[in-house]
Amino acid sequence: DFDLGLLMSDVGRLESAIRHLQRAANHGDYGLGARLLLGKILEKMDRIKEAAVNYMEALELADSTIVPAGQAEELRQLYEPLVESQTQQTNMETQQRLCSNIKEMLMRPDWREHMARARQQLPAQMEGGPPVPLAEILTEARGNRVVEAVNKIHQYARTGNYRAAMEEAYYALQQAPTYLPLHTYIGELLLQQNQVQYALDKFTVVALSYSTRGDAARAVDMFRRVIELAPMEMKARSRLIDQLIAMGRMEDAISEYLNLADVYYNLADLIMARKTYTNALRLAQQGTIDRKWKVMILHRMADIDVQSLDWRQALRVYEQIRTLQPDDDKARSSLIDLNFRLGQTPQAVAELDSFITFLWSNGQKNKAVEYVENLVKENPRQPMIRRRMADLYRQTGRVTDAIEELDAAGDLLIDAGDKAGATEVVLAILGMNPPNTAEYQQLLAQLKAG
Buried (b) or exposed (e) across 2-41, using 16+ Cβ within 10 A? Predict the structure, then answer.
């Protein structure tokens, strides 16, 4: 969107440029550049008030990169009343001067150093208090009184005087009723006084307000705060996912989908858990998402299918995993196991042969042996698995072990009444010249005699 906005600006399609840049402004890497370019375009179109707002938001983003990382978010919150004041400013000359000042400060190669020097001209930060916005030396507005009020709220709260802090917060709201951080401070004060539900309601309203304003990053922070306090708040989790998707943070959104599915799973609501995993998978199937997410989600979906005894559906899911991740041991084992459960022995054996071939052709002979050894332990009464185990032992020179496995497979086949299969096994043993050849020849004669 940023590149398109820049291109549209260069060719004079300013309205189209504005639309693209407004979307780009919500993405962290392009926010500052998008806001500056929006300011420049709007100024060119004589939409000075809108230009001033965008320049102020650009200053906010830039200023938050200068202060220590731990203070950046609090500083950005303090910019809100200053930005808000620009929407109500009626003096065109004042707004034009603000635009010029911010352009002079930011549209230069050494803007970071220039801003750092400018911050040295600010009033000293109160110990333990929030940082002072650089905008204070560029504008005078009622927002400055809100900044002072926030300092007082911090002072009262640190000393445990929550009632005074609350009164100060409500007084400040009269000056700036749409300043959302003040509402957040009130929520935190309610929380300190164990009024948890009121705090949750306040935080939810703040999160929704940020979302309505298009400030997805802060909406995300507030929804996370709600979830931290009330992990079972499903609506907050769903809204958090929507905000992350709007910001283009797809992997974070997928992670939150998984968290939401875990909540449903812990509530034994397997239908909603699987539905949530399906939504996560749909998001993970977008081109740039790491394949590991798809594999992880599919495994969880298959687990639910197995628990629900929907073996055929689980089989289809594990087949998808096998396609995405051919060396996934769990998926391969599950495909073999499920095919046996469904009475599809040829398919089970074909799956086993396919995985052995894959490992063998990729130089993982030891892994192939270990894998089938574990499979034998999990399925000791499956003669076909034991026969594959014997084949691997024979190919790796472990003839004695191979004969033992064939012996066990032969016993299972005889117990099952499969004389033809048992005959094949005895012939395979004789082909390895066992020390007790005569005994096997006698057994072979008995099997052929019927």
Answer: bebbbebbeeeebeebbebbbbbbbbeebbbbbbbbbbbb
Is residue 449 situated within a structural domain? no
> Residue 267: which domain range?
249-325
Which residues lie closer than 8 Å to 432 by C-beta, 6 or more apart? 394, 399, 402, 403
3-class secondary-structure state, position 308: coil
Please indicate, yes or no, if residue 268 is contained in any of the structural domains.
yes
What is this structure's pTM? Answer: 0.67
- Per-residue CA distances from 74 to 155, 191, 207, 218, 320 (Å): 15, 19, 16, 11, 46
* Crossing angle of helices 365-378 and 345-361, rounded to 10°: 150
Residue-level pLDDT at 278: 96
Distance CA(137)–CA(122), nearest Å, equals 7
Report the number of distinct structural domains present in the chain.
1
Q: Which residue has the tokens 């009626």?
A: 90
Cβ atoms of residues 247 and 216 within 8 Å: yes
Q: What is the pLDDT of residue 128?
A: 57
> 188 lies in a domain?
no
Interatomic CA distance for residues 198 and 35, integer angstroms: 36
- For the chain, helix, strand, coil in percent to 5 are 75, 0, 25
| Residue keyed to tokens 């894959």 | 358
CATH number of domain containing 274: 1.25.40.10
Q: For residue 373, which amino acid is it? A: E
As a whole number of angstroms, the distance between CA 410 and CA 441 comes to: 14
Amino acid 141: pLDDT: 43
Find the Cα–Cα–Cα–Cα dihedral 308, 310, 311, 315, rounded to 10°: -110
Task: State how far the Cα of 91 lies from the Cα of 283, in Å rounded to an integer.
Answer: 48
pLDDT along the chain (450 residues), means of 10: 87 90 83 92 92 92 88 83 78 86 87 81 55 67 59 83 89 78 87 93 92 82 93 94 90 96 95 96 89 96 96 96 92 91 90 91 90 90 92 93 93 91 92 89 85
- Determine, yes or no, domain membership for 260: yes
